[in-house]
Structure formats: structure tokens, C-alpha cells
Amino acid sequence: MTTDRNNNQSASNQPQRRPFFSLRHKMLVYFGLLFAVSLVVIELVSLFGAPYTDYEGEFYYQQNGIFRSLNHVADSKKKYLVSLIEERRNNIMALAKSGMLRDDGSKLHALFGKFTASGMQGGALWSAIRKEKSFKMIVGHIKLLKRQYKMYEKIEIADIATGVVIASTDDDDLGENVFRKYAFMASRENRNLSKISFDKTGNDFGLRLVEPVLDIKTDASGENQIILVLIAHVDPSAVIYPLLHTGRGLNETGEVVLVDSDAKIIAPLKYKLPNGLTAVPLEYQIKAKPAMMGASGEEGITVGDDYRGEPVLAAYRHILISPDIEWGMVVKIDKSEAFAPLYQRLETVTYVGSIGLMVTLLLAWFLAYRMSTPLMALSRAAGKVERGEMIERVESTGSIETYTLASAFNSMTTKIHSRRVKLEDMVFKRTVELQSANADLVGEIAERKKAEEELAKHRDHLEELVQERTNELSSVNKELEAFAYSVSHDLRAPLRGIDGFSKALLEDYADKVDDTGKDYLSRVSAATLKMSQLIDDLLTLSRVTRSEVTAEPVDLSALAHDVADDLRKEQPERMVKISIEKDLVAQGDKRLLRVVLYNLMSNSWKFTWKRLDASIEIGAARRDGKIVYFVRDNGVGFDMKYVGKLFGAFQRLHTLSEFPGTGIGLAIVQRIIHRHGGRVWAEAEVDKGAVFYLTL
């Protein structure tokens, strides 16, 4: 009785970990989390939409609106830029084809050729040119065109033969040689070519509009020849730059970036680079995704970082000015500005949500206090009951649920007290019974220990008997091996005598012995030779039995090649195809495994001698998760009903006259494989060859 009670008390008095959060704290946390999660979900749905519905949310609505605006700006600027350059090109084309320029140009071209042919050059040449009426007419016309449009830096007219500028809006350009410039050369080689040249030399962005001027006279073929080249230099600051950072839809952070086909900027950027430096046109390459895609010929919209590393919304376009000039244009706006209203709304929601969370926590605390007070009283009463104060009762106050719980608790304590008394009586009776049973069990344990001691004595005696028997068997095996070895050696001497005397009779008394006697002596000699081979095989079998097996990695492919070479040397007249798989490696005794391969391969060599297409194959395969090595031939094979005799000593499945041998080679193979812990077996079919399998 005392023991059981102590055990119960120790189990009930074990310290239990007190919960970190009380009921009030948990209710506060739950209410706060419920409010915060609800607020976040509502705001996320409002901003980003509801999944699996058509409502996309204000974020995507705002983003789509910005993309529409950027697309509109990009399309309008692209259209305006292309049309502006095309207008300037049409102006230059009209000037080049005008009757005035062709008439005066022909005269000026002829005068220039005449003056230079006479040896006139330098200041004298240009002084004479300036006095000519045709020169004055041409210069006056191109200067008027420059003043009218205010987009040209200068307009030049170059001689087609020499590339020398013979008329220009800038007198300092007279005499300049443009012969090697790409645009001039293109117009010189193709009379119908109108060129727009994009000059990148010297870090200077120059747009050149080039048109050929034809002579008013025709040649023998009836065609007008090119006599002059009209070159108009467009001022980018007057045409390109104003287009980039003006217009609706760009807002405060908006920017238009223009790049060439290598994504190098053409016009100055609005912002400095992240390192504080200013990007140099035609030198700085933009690695940002929108510029790269526009330069590569793509058009579309995207969200990414610009050259500053700032997140932006961008629309990119590809502008084809001419077959040789391709630009990329990016119209972008900072993401911070684009979504500024949404960011401001998030700040407002966060502020209002914080206030709401505080109000929610205060309300939750009030409700938790009202709900948890009766429960805490019940918890204190339960603690007293746990300590054994069974008369503790709880006041039934509060809601109907707590009233019901308190009444049930009071009823429970009353029943527990009455049952505790009954339980103590039952425990006392059971304790007496257990003490009696323990006494019986002690006696039974003593008897069992005695039986175990007797069993241990018998086991020790049995182990001694087994060890003695093992020693006797080992001694007998050694004696048998020694006997077999000595008998094999002792038999050699009389055999050598029989063989020697037989050969001596044949040699010394050949004239005195008839043919029958000679035949008998030959048979005696052959029998002794066969007996000698049997003795050699017995010695080999004895050595296999007595030798120790040393395990090491063995290259079976190399051993098979050695055996094949030996077989070919023994019978070089035979043509046998021997296939040996590469990298066959096994774990075993190299010397004994060579004996195995020699016996199996020599068997295949022997039993394929009747085949003109004799073949032997050595390889490996995986069966049931193990590596199986095999030796296959296309020889005479054998009947599988005799396979049980195959590995027995001196067992033969073919006559000696057909295939010589002692019949002990496969027995040696089996003994070696068994000593390696493996097994060997064969499969064959008559006249269709045989396969010998082995595992190690």
C-alpha cells in the first residue's frame, strides 16, 4: 500500500511546464491577428485584385493606364521623328533635282574642272570661284534654305570626281575633301542613291542627308551623269534633342532615351549616372533591358531598372531611319512617381490600421477580462483539488457556460472524494495479493537461475567436443592431402620406368618385334602418358585445395588475353575468333583465376576445332544485382541432361578419340570458384555451343 501510494504521489508531483501565454493574452493576440490579417487581405485585394476573378485591382489598373500613356508618347515621338527626318530629306531631294541647282551646278562643275586643269589652286582658285555667278546663285539658295528651316548646321556641295567641297553655307569649308566619307562614296557609286548618314566620328552626333546632283546634259547612252553631291548637315540640337524631354505624358521623372543599334546613347541623358558622372553620347552604352530590346529591333512595354538602377515603367520602340541607320527609343517614368497615389494610400491605410489595431486590442482586453475571470477562478480551484483539497468548491457566477462548468466541477470533486476512499481499500487488498505473488516469483526465479547454470555447463562441454572434432577433421584432411600428394609423386617413378622401357624396346629391338608388338608398346607408352597427365591434374587439384586464397583486384581482361596468346602459340595453325570484353575486373586470387580462365578457354578451344568459324567470347553481365562472368563458344556443346556430371572429377561427356583430355579441368574450376565463395554453372545445346557462367 505504501509503495503504490508513493509512486502515485511522485507521478502527480512531477513539475509541469507552465504555458507562456495566459488565456487573456491569447485572446488579445488572436483578436489583434484577426484584425491585422483582415486589414491586410482587404488592402491586398483592393490593390492587386482577387484571385480567380476578373477583378485585377487598382495596382494593375494604374499600371495599365501608365503603359497606355507611355505607348501613346512613344508612338507619337517615333512618328514625329521619322516624319521630321523624312521632310528634311524631301527638301534636300527637291533641291538636288531643282533646275536651278542642276543648271548652275553644271556650270560650276565645268568651271572648277577648267580652273584646276589650268593649274590654279589655293587662294587663287577659290577667289576665282567666288566671283562666278553660278557659285553665288548656288550659295545664296542653300543659305536661304538653311535660314528658312533653322535645322541645318551647314549645307555643302562636293565635286563628284575629286570630293572637294566647291560650295557651302560656311566659306571655311571650301576646299575640304570629303572623298573618303562613307555617304559621299555611296552616292558616287550609285547615281540613284539618296543617303542618310549617321556620323559617329569624333564623339559627334551628326545626321547627314546626301543626294546626288545630275548633269543637265546626257552622255552617249542618253543618261544624266552625277556631277555633284549635295550634303546637308542636320543640327541634332534643333531636331532631335527638343523631341526627347518635351511633350505630354512624361510628368516629372519621365525621360526619352535614344540609342543606336549598339545601345549607345545618341542624345544627352536627363540624369547623371550612379557614379555621379555625365554620360558621353556615342560612348556610353546602356545595359538596361528596355534600351537593349529597342536597339535589337523589338517593340513593347516592360517593368525593370533603367541606367540609374531605378525601377521604371517603360515603352520601347525600334526606329528605322534608313537601311543603315537603326535606332532604339525608350519612353520611361519612375515607378515611384507612377504609383505615388497608391504608396500614399498605403501610408494612410497603415496609419488608420494602427489606430484601429489599438482600439481592437483595448476591446479585446475588456472582453478577455470578462470572459476569463470565472475560468481563472475555476483554474485556481482545480489546482487546490490537485493538491488534495477535495472540499474546494467554485462559485457559480458569470455566463450560462461558466455556470454549467462550475456546477459540473463541484459535482466532480464530490464524486472523486467518495471514490478515492473506495480506491484506497481496493489498493490495500491488491497490495497484499501482490506481496504473496512476489514471494512465489522469487522462488521461481531461483529455480530458473539454477537451470541456466546447468545449461551453461552443458554448452561449455559441447563447445569443447566440437573443438576436438574440428581438430581431428583438420588433421585427417591434412593427412589425406599429404597422402594424395605423396601417392601422386610416388606413381611418377614406375610410370617413367614403364614409358622408358617401352620406348627402349621400340628403339633397340625394332627389328625383332613384329607390328603387333610395336602396337602394344605404343599403347603402353600412350597409357603411361595419359596416366602422367592424370597425376598432374591430381597434383593441380591438390594444390588448389591446399593453397591460400589471396583477395586482390584482378584484371580478368588482361588474363584472358594472356591465355588466348598461349592457346594460339600451342596451335598456330587454327583460326579462332576470340572476343574479350574490356575492363573486366574481379576480386580474387590472380594465380587461381588464371587457372580458371585457362581451363574454360582451353575447353572452348578444344570443342570448337571442327568449326570453320570457331569463336570464343569472354564477357560479363548483371543478373539479380550481381556481376556474372561468362565464357561462350560455338562448339559441339552437350546435352543438358548430363550437366550434373560436368564438374565431377574424371567425368567426360565426349569420347577420348574425339576430344582428348583427363576430365578433371572443370572439377579444378569448380574447386577454385567455391574457394572464392562463388558458384559456377553451364548452359549448352548440342551442336550449338556452350556457355560457362561463374560468380565470385
Task: Give structural notes.
It is a single chain. The strands form 4 sheets. The protein has a 5-stranded antiparallel β-sheet with strand order 2-1-5-4-3, with helices on both faces. It has a 5-stranded mixed β-sheet with strand order 11-13-14-16-15. The chain is flat. Helix 16 (590-607) packs antiparallel against helix 17. The protein contains 17 helices and 16 strands. It has 696 residues and is α+β, with helices and mostly antiparallel strands. Mean pLDDT is 78; it is low at 1-16 and 191-195.
Give keywords.
single chain; 5-stranded antiparallel sheet; 55% helix; flat; disordered N terminus
Short description:
This protein is α+β, with helices and mostly antiparallel strands. 55% of the residues lie in helices and 16% in strands.
> Would you tell me the overall average pLDDT?
78
Strand proportion, as a percent range, falls in: 15-25%
The number of helices is: 17
* Helix percent band: 40-55%
Query: Which regions have little confidence, pLDDT < 50, spanning 5+ residues?
Result: 1-16, 191-195
Number of strand segments: 16
Please summarize the sheet with the most strands: 5 strands, antiparallel
Distance between the termini: 68 Å
Alpha-carbon Rg, integer: 57 Å
Structural category is alpha+beta
Biggest sheet strand line-up: 2-1-5-4-3
The shape, in one word, is flat
